[in-house]
Design a protein that fits this description.
Strand content of chain B: under 5%
CATH class of the largest domain in chain A: Alpha Beta
CATH superfamily of the largest domain in chain B: MetI-like
Number of domains of chain A: 2
CATH topology of the largest domain in chain B: MetI-like fold
Largest sheet of chain A: 6 strands, mixed
Order of helices and strands of chain B: HHHEEHHHHHHHHHEEH
Number of strands of chain A: 22
Radius of gyration of chain A: 24 Å
Largest interface: A-B, 33 and 23 residues
Number of helices of chain A: 9
Number of domains of chain B: 2
CATH class of the largest domain in chain B: Mainly Alpha
Distance between the termini of chain A: 34 Å
Strand content of chain A: 25-35%
Strand order of the largest sheet of chain A: 6-7-8-3-9-10
Helix content of chain A: 10-25%
Distance between the termini of chain B: 23 Å
Shape of chain B: globular
Mean pLDDT of chain B: 84
CATH topology of the largest domain in chain A: Rossmann fold
CATH superfamily of the largest domain in chain A: P-loop containing nucleotide triphosphate hydrolases
Oligomer: heterodimer
Largest sheet of chain B: 2 strands, antiparallel
CATH architecture of the largest domain in chain B: Orthogonal Bundle
Low-confidence stretches of chain B: 277-285
Low-confidence stretches of chain A: 360-365
Structural class of chain A: alpha+beta
Radius of gyration of chain B: 24 Å
Mean pLDDT of chain A: 86
Chain lengths: ~375, ~280
C-alpha cells in the first residue's frame, strides 16, 4: 500500500520541456490515466518515475519515500512498455518469472496464477518471437504485475495490439489492475481507453497538467477548449460568439440565429468567447423556429450506433451532429434547422481558451 | 530473387561454380602441394596425379628439415603453439576490455566519448610500421620485449578496435527498454548487462571475436620485430623455410595447411552463431 506522489517535477531536454512543474498524486488501488497528444510528455513522466531519467527539479515519492536518485530496481515499480520489451532469448515463462527475485516453488505457482489470470498458460513455453502481439502484451503485463509492485506504470500498452483485442483488454484491464493495491499510472493517446479504464484522467498538454478529474467530469466540464476538443468523437462544435444577458439568460448570435447559451448568473455580458456544443447535443429538424440555426446537410455518415451529419450553418461554419440512427436524418443538401439546449452550451474565453462559468453544465449532468 | 527459368538456374550454377573454383583453387592446390616433394612441385608441366608423401608433415612435426645442404632445426610446432596462445590470449583480453567498453559507448553519452572511440578506431588505419620503432624502444625500456604478454598487449591494437566497433553496433540495436524492463523487475545494472545485453549481442560478440582472432593470427610485423624465435607465431616462423639451399615449397604448403586449420575450424564452428543473427522478436518490427 503506497501512494505515488509527484511534486512539481520538471525536466528539460535542450529547448523542449516535456515536464514543466507537474504535480499529481495517485492513491493505492487507484488508476489514473495520463492522456495527451503525442509529444506532450507522457512517456517522459513515466520514465522519470521508473528511474530512466532523473527530474531536473521536483520530487517523486512512493509511500512517502523519495525515489529520486534511487536505481530503478529499488523503486518498487512495475512497468509495461508500449513495445513490450520482452527478453527475446527467454521463454514467456522466464520472462514473467524474471519479475520475481525469490526462487523455488513459489515462482512456479505465482507464474501459473498470473498466467491463468491473463489467459496465456498455453504459451508459457514459447519464446517472444513465437507469440502474437496480444500474447506478447499479456506476457509483458504479467511480468509487470507478478511482483505486486507498489506502483504500476503502463506505457500505452494497447497501442500495438489489434482493435478486437484492444476492446477485450479495455474490459479486462480495470479488474486486473484493481486486484492489487498498486497505484496505477496508465499512459494512452486514446481518450476512449482513458475513459474506459481510469478512475481519474490527467490531461497532459505541453508538459503541464491541464486538468485532472474523473472521466465524466472531463467530458462534461472540460477546463479549456483544448481539452474539450481532445475528448469526444466526433469532436466538439465551436463557434465564435459574444454572449449578452437577456431575461436572466445569456444569449448569443450563432449564424444569424439568437441562441440561448446558459444562465446569466448576474452577468451582463461576456467578451469574445468560443461556444462549444457536443455533436450529440444537437437536435436537427426540418421545422423552422426562432431559436434554431438554419443549416444545410453536406454529408451523412451512417455509423450504425449513430449517424453523423456534416452541416454547413448559414454563416458557412461547419458543424457535426451525431444523431441516434432511428432519428429522421433527412438527406444530403436538405435545408434543416439546428437547435441545442442552453445547458448543453459550453463557453470558453476566446483569448485564454479557459472555460467560463462551469456551473452551466453542472445542472445538466 | 528466385530464378525459375532453366536458363537462369544454369547460369546461376555456372556462376557459383566459377566463384567457388576461383576462391577454392589456391587452397586445394596448397593442400595437394603439401603431399609432394620439391621435385614433384617444380615439375613442368604440373601434374594432378602424383605419389603422395607425408615427408613434409613429418619434417614439420619432428622439427628436422632435410635439405640438400644438410639438416636444419626448425621450430614450426612451437610457432604454431605460440600462434594459438598469442591469438587466443589477445582475443580473450580484447573481449574482456572491449565488450564492456562497447556497451558504455553504445549506452552512455559522456565527455570525449566519441573522441575516444574514434581514436581507438584510428589504430586500425595507422600503418603498424609507424608505431613499431617507438614501440620497440618502449618495449625494451619496459622489459616487455620478447614476452608473451608484450605481444598480447600489442595485438590489442588489432583486436580491441575491431571488437569495440562491431559489438557497439550490436548493443545499439538492442532496445534500451529491454534492459530497463529487466532492471525494473529488480535486477541490478550488472545483471542487466550480463543476462540481457551480452546474450542478445552474442552473435555480434562471436563475429567480432572470430574476426579479431583471424587478424591476430595473420599478423606478421609486430611479432617479427618484438619477439625472438621461441615466442614467434607461424607467420614469422614460416621464414625458416627460405633456406640457403632453396625454398622448401612442400614444407611451406604443409605449414600453411597446418596453420590455416585452426582458424578454419573455428570459423566453421562459429558459423552458426554468425548466421543466427540478432533477432529481436520481442520488440515490434
Amino acid at each position: 500500500m503506497a501512494r505515488l506522489e509527484i511534486n512539481s517535477v520538471s525536466k528539460a531536454f535542450g529547448a523542449a520541456r516535456p515536464a514543466d512543474g507537474l504535480s499529481l498524486a495517485v492513491e493505492p488501488g487507484e488508476i489514473v490515466a495520463v492522456f495527451g497528444p503525442s509529444g506532450s510528455g507522457k512517456t517522459v513522466l513515466l520514465r522519470m518515475i521508473a528511474g530512466m531519467f532523473e527530474p531536473d527539479d521536483g520530487d517523486i515519492t512512493v509511500g512517502g519515500r523519495s525515489v529520486v536518485g534511487a536505481p530503478p530496481e529499488r523503486r518498487g515499480i512495475g512497468m509495461a512498455f508500449q513495445n513490450f520489451a520482452l527478453f527475446p532469448h527467454m521463454t514467456a515463462r522466464d520472462n514473467i518469472a524474471s519479475g520475481l527475485r525469490a526462487g523455488g516453488n513459489e515462482v512456479a505457482s505465482r507464474v501459473a496464477a498470473i498466467s491463468k489470470l491473463l489467459k496465456i498458460e498455453h504459451v508459457l513455453g514459447h519464446t517472444p518471437r513465437e507469440l502474437s502481439n496480444g500474447q506478447k502484451q499479456r506476457t509483458a503485463l504479467a511480468r509487470a504485475l507478478i511482483g505486486n509492485p507498489d506502483v504500476l506504470l503502463l506505457d500505452d500498452p494497447l497501442r500495438n495490439v489489434d482493435a478486437k483485442l484492444r476492446y477485450e483488454m479495455r474490459l479486462e484491464l480495470p479488474n486486473l489492475l484493481r486486484r492489487g493495491t498498486a497505484a496505477v499510472l496508465y499512459v494512452t493517446q486514446d481518450y476512449r481507453e482513458a475513459m474506459a479504464i481510469a478512475d481519474r484522467i490527467a490531461v497532459l498538454i505541453d508538459g503541464r497538467l491541464a486538468q485532472v478529474a474523473t472521466p465524466a467530469d472531463i467530458y462534461a466540464q472540460p477546463a479549456s477548449v483544448a481539452i474539450a476538443r481532445l475528448f469526444g468523437d466526433p469532436t466538439i462544435n465551436l463557434a465564435e460568439v459574444s454572449p449578452v444577458a437577456e431575461h436572466g439568460m445569456l444569449s448569443a448570435m450563432v449564424a444569424g440565429a439568437r441562441m440561448r447559451v446558459g444562465a446569466a448568473d448576474g452577468l451582463a455580458s461576456l467578451g469574445a468567447c468560443w461556444l462549444g456544443v457536443r455533436p450529440e447535443d444537437l437536435v436537427v429538424s426540418s421545422a423552422s423556429a426562432d431559436d434554431a440555426i438554419p443549416a444545410r446537410i453536406l454529408a451523412i455518415t451512417p455509423m450504425h450506433e449513430k449517424a453523423v451529419l456534416l452541416l454547413r450553418l448559414a454563416d458557412g461554419t461547419e458543424w457535426l451532429a451525431a444523431l441516434p440512427p432511428d432519428a429522421p436524418q433527412g438527406a444530403a443538401d436538405d435545408g434543416v434547422f439546428v437547435r441545442f439546449a442552453p445547458d448543453a452550451a459550453m463557453l470558453f474565453d476566446r483569448a485564454t481558451g479557459l472555460r467560463i462559468g462551469p456551473s452551466h453544465r453542472l445542472k445538466a449532468a | 530473387m528466385e530464378h525459375s527459368s532453366l536458363a537462369g538456374r544454369i547460369f546461376r550454377g555456372v556462376a557459383l561454380s566459377l566463384i567457388l573454383i576461383f576462391f577454392m583453387f589456391p587452397i586445394v592446390w596448397i593442400f595437394l602441394m603439401s603431399f609432394q616433394n620439391n621435385d614433384q612441385i617444380l615439375r613442368i608441366p604440373p601434374r594432378i596425379l602424383f605419389e603422395p608423401t607425408l615427408a613434409n608433415y613429418e619434417a614439420l612435426i619432428s622439427g628436422q628439415l632435410r635439405t640438400a645442404a644438410g639438416n636444419l632445426q626448425i621450430s614450426f610446432m612451437r610457432n604454431l603453439f605460440n600462434s594459438v596462445v598469442l591469438s587466443s590470449a589477445a582475443v580473450l583480453l580484447a573481449l574482456l576490455l572491449g565488450v564492456p567498453a562497447a556497451y558504455a559507448f553504445a549506452r552512455f553519452k559522456f565527455r570525449l566519448g566519441e573522441t575516444i572511440a574514434f581514436t581507438l578506431l584510428s589504430f586500425r588505419f595507422a600503418p603498424p610500421l609507424l608505431v613499431l620503432l617507438p614501440l620497440s624502444l618502449y618495449y625494451q625500456e619496459l622489459g616487455l620485449n620478447d614476452t608473451y604478454f608484450g605481444i598480447v598487449w600489442v595485438y590489442q591494437l588489432i583486436a580491441l578496435p575491431l571488437i569495440l566497433w562491431i559489438v557497439r553496433g550490436y548493443f545499439e540495436d538492442i532496445s534500451p527498454d529491454i534492459e530497463h524492463a529487466y532492471r525494473l523487475a529488480g535486477h541490478s545494472w550488472r545483471e542487466a548487462f550480463t543476462r540481457i545485453a551480452v546474450p542478445l549481442a552474442g552473435p555480434g560478440i562471436a563475429a567480432a571475436g572470430l574476426l579479431s582472432f583471424i587478424f591476430c593470427w595473420n599478423n606478421f610485423v609486430f611479432a617479427l620485430i618484438l619477439a625472438s624465435a621461441d615466442k614467434q607465431p607461424v607467420t614469422v616462423g614460416a621464414l625458416a623455410f627460405v633456406t640457403a639451399s632453396g625454398i622448401q615449397y612442400g614444407q611451406i604448403a604443409a605449414a600453411i595447411v597446418l596453420s590455416v586449420t585452426p582458424t578454419l575450424l573455428l570459423a566453421l564452428y562459429a558459423q552458426r552463431y554468425l548466421v543466427e543473427g540478432l533477432s529481436l522478436g520481442a520488440v515490434k518490427g
